Amino acid sequence: MGRRGQSEPLLRLLFLGLSASALGRIVKVPAGPLVRVEDTEVAIPCNVTQYDGPSEQNFDWEFSTNPAQDSKFVDIISTWDPSFTSQEYQDRVTRGDIKLRRNSNSAVELVIGNIRPADQGVYRCTTPSTDSVFHGNYNAAVEVKVITDGLTVTGSKTRSMSTWNLSEGDSFQLRCSASTNSSEHTHLHVSWEFRNALAWQEILSLTHEGKFQPGPEYNERYISGDVRLDAMANDIYRLSVSQALPSDEGAYRCRVSEWVKDADGSWQKIQEKSVDVAKVVVQPTALGVFITRSNVSVTERDSLYLTCNFTTDRSGIFQAEVTWYYSESPDGPMADAQMLLSADRDSVISDSTLISLSQVDRSSYHLLVRDMGIEDSGYYFCQAALWVPQYNGSWYKVAERTSLPVTVEVTALEPSYHVFLNASKMPKFSEDPTELECRITEARNAEANIRYTVSWYYRLPLRSDEVVKDELLATMDADWTLVVGERSKQRAQNGEIIFSKPAVDTFRLRIQWTSEADRGEYYCIISSWSRQRNNSWVKIKDVASMSVSILWSTQDYALTVEAVKLKPFFMAGHTFEMTCKVSSRNIKSPRYSVLITAEKNLNDQSNPNGTTRIISLNQDSVVRREDWTDQDRVDGVVLEKVQENEFRYRMYQTQISDAGLYRCVVTAWSPGGGGMWREAVNGLSNPIQIDFQTSGPVFNASVHSDNPTVYRDELVNLLCIITIEGTAFDPDDMSFDVSWFAVRSYAMDRPPVFLASLDRKGITTQARRNGSSDVSLARIAPLEFQLRVHGCEDQDFGNHYCVVTPWVRSAAGIWQQETEVKSKPIFVTVKMDVLNAFKFPLLIGIGLATLIGLLSCLIGYCSSRWCCKKEVQETRRERRRLMSMEMD
């Protein structure tokens, strides 16, 4: 299969070669006869196909005048044998009059430069054989007829001058005569061509097939009828141009070619002639456009008069078209300009209400704009175009120019007025209202279409060497829309600053509550606006007022607070009472808020952490308990307002723990904006001391444990023992709050951790624990409290101590809280039991080792019993055989 696959391409090539050999060589020349004109260049092609041998083939050309009458063929030229040429053609071949032109390896052309009548006859093209087998045709012949030149081309003009001077837009016609008296049936191809500074380009042609063919640059003009080619009598071909353009200036010629149809049906150009017809000069139409005035100033509501003039050198019939434009920029593009009014070539003027256009004379057009407004300021220019009639009744625009713009400035009809600013309400204190009125006075020339708006400004008073900064408070647009500045935006939204217009000529600024930040200078600016024709508003004038200073005499706030103890001596259980008297200066309508504080740590009065906020009374007389958390004496403290500047504090059923320094903290408030109160100043009273002189018992606390060192998961017992020195009390008259704490370190350098507590009512509280250990708390004796830690863990180690708060019942039956006492710590150590820790792992390890050994013995026994049984039996048989042989 592999060999067969490789031989298939070779067989295919062999088959193709045999097929080619069967078809044979084919030599081709054009089908004759070929009609050619005397003294023209003739090229006769010849090509060969389906040949063997080298790709480049050679050709021999021969000629016979009449081979039918046994006229011999004469050698002309060969591609491979220089000696092939006969003697009678030697000179023409040497001169190059006759030559061969190779087009490809298998095609050549016999070129005869100036064919003669004697060259009429039969030409034969022969190819030497390079084939392995002689088969096919090796030559081909074609007949060539030579006719005399019968083509005549002449140019004729409607004017005697060779140069035509035209004006832009004029029409012109050029003519040429072309005819032939050829004996053969030929056709003419007539083309009109134009040349300026560049090469010749085709205008319009009448082809040998009778079709009109415009050049690429003249296609649109041909379609529109501007360029025409007419075949007239007497073999005249006329080129007509209806309107001359500046680009039409140049030379014109008529080019005529003669065509014949060969035997194969194709057209062949046999000769070509041309004649220069005329030189055309096109003079562009001169047009100048200008406005008689340069810069114009017009007062608002007056009229604008402008005249557009144009000049031209064109005579004859023409019509002018004038258009007026307006632009905001002198150099803006034409597309952005606004057309005001126009007069076409028929003097038809477009319609407008306030603008009119009139023709003064043939070259002057007058523009009138009535009721000029501020928005009409800008640049005005006119554009003129000249139109000329054409032969077909249409009009052609020959020139168009635009004038230079005229600057028109419309000055507003300004009203005359003054602005007066006064303070109708001046503050005497902070938070007083301020009211400013900005008024228009002595207004003149104020028409009905004039509108006034206001802008308010604030100026911060600075030193003389500093730059004055003006801040915009608010401004009004032409439609009276208020735009508030950043400085006053939030206050205006809250209603603290009000901008109003109570009258046509009056604007008002009111600050409801004037603050220190409002001190400074204020001024207003009145702007006048004029309504335009399009109902828009244009600002025409700004007038500023004199500034008004908003200042008031200020003094520092002063506040004095005095605390007085009403009862000089009292005992525990009695009521403590003191008053706070307040006096202030330079505060308008003050109100006071009072806070009662206590400093329990008498040894360190400057320590703020030792200050307790007890009760407060705000400026609206609302009472609030602050840090008073004694649930047994929820209503034990009272703060009330006796007078506007006097407040009374009472504390019922005082206890020993209430000892300390008591003060009144007073804050003065003054009325603020929106019914709010503003803090003015704070004051602190003198301290009032509560000190109980008693000879009661002294309590102490200590912690004891029989075994503070334990192993993990064991029990720790801690005892908090209370001792009493001095007067003895009945156990029923004593009660204790006991709390347990632990410090998880050796050196007491960490914060304590709360463990559990037992209050005097027997309620137990425990902290949340993260481990598995637990605590329990119990009172085992009147003066002993026990803490148990069950299932101790490593995290239960540390210094443990108790905090005791004694409570003693007085003779009057009132429980009094005594001073809190704290025991010394005892360190609890939690150890690990090594024997118990390793007991279970050792037992597990021994058990696993024993189990694995037994399992190994069992596996060995089974292997020896079953797997090795056959081998042992064979060994015994061999021994028996050896023994029997010895015995033999």
Automatic annotation (TrEMBL):
Gene3D superfamilies attached to this UniProt entry: Immunoglobulins
Domain Ig-like residue range list: 9-126, 128-276, 284-384, 415-544
Pfam name, any one: V-set
Annotated TM spans: 840-861
Localisation: Membrane
InterPro entries in UniProt: Ig-like_dom, Ig-like_dom_sf, Ig-like_fold, Ig_sub, Ig_V-set, IgSF_V-set/TM_domain
Keywords, comma-separated and alphabetical: Disulfide bond, Immunoglobulin domain, Membrane, Receptor, Repeat, Signal, Transmembrane, Transmembrane helix
PROSITE patterns documented for this protein: IG_LIKE
One Gene Ontology cellular component: membrane
Signal peptide: 1-24
Bilayer topology: Single-pass membrane protein
Entry-linked PANTHER family: PROSTAGLANDIN F2 RECEPTOR NEGATIVE REGULATOR (PTHR12207:SF3), V-SET AND TRANSMEMBRANE DOMAIN-CONTAINING PROTEIN (PTHR12207)
Protein name: Prostaglandin F2 receptor negative regulator isoform X1
Organism whose genome encodes this protein: Eublepharis macularius (Leopard gecko)
